[in-house]
Here is the input.
Amino acid sequence: MSVDAATVRRIAQLARIAVTDAEVPHLQGELNAMLNFVEQLSEVNVEGVEPMTSVTPMAMKKRQEVVNDGEIADDIVKNAPATENHFFLVPKVVE
Here is the structure.
């Protein structure tokens, strides 16, 4: 797959990047080099290789799942004009 000059201009327009006519050939070469590298990656045999999230094996740190109110309900509603049982009271807007 290769990118032509019109495609470079279209990509620049979509990315909202100002590209002069003198810059188009250089960007065309850069984009084609990137696409060639991606094509090389598709040739790699990855059968039997497990997907990884890191190059070093590690277990994710997990916290205990404990349900609580954060123990700051009073601090949250203290500046509200009206509250009831740690809930904000607001005017009725639906008739």
Notes: Helices lie at 5-14, 24-42, 73-77.
